[in-house]
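hiii so um. not sure if this is the right channel but i have a protein structure encoded as tokens and i wanna go backwards to a sequence. like what aa goes where. can anyone help
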């Protein structure tokens, strides 16, 4: 089964998640150099990645130089659902280029009353 997520041993806080439901044209291209970034989806955004609970880190393989926006698209998360993104603990725009082993947090707008 093809997947862009890499699982680590049980007990490390990581899960392997199949992304077979994501259209091929939204996945990273093959034949190019790739990198792995760690991503956490917060406050309900995990519903877009089957089996990915909120806040659990996932390793995602991406094409070298991919942006935060491309990462979000590869996960099947609509960009209009995303309010804030952090890369290595700092707020970054969607066009921010990712580096191997970056840690990315993706947050939706939070409403309340």
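sure thing!! here u go:
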């Amino acid at each position: 089964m093809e997947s862009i997520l890499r699982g680590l041993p049980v007990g490390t806080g990581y899960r392997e998640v199949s992304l077979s439901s994501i259209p091929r044209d939204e996945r990273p291209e093959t034949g190019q150099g790739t990198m792995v970034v760690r991503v956490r989806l917060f406050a309900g955004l995990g519903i877009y990645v089957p089996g990915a609970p909120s806040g659990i880190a996932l390793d995602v393989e991406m094409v070298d130089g991919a942006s935060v926006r491309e990462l979000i698209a590869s996960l099947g998360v609509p960009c209009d659902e995303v309010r804030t993104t952090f890369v290595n603990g700092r707020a970054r725009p969607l066009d921010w280029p990712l580096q191997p082993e970056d840690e990315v947090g993706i947050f939706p707008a939070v409403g309340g009353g």
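oh and The chain has one helix and six strands.
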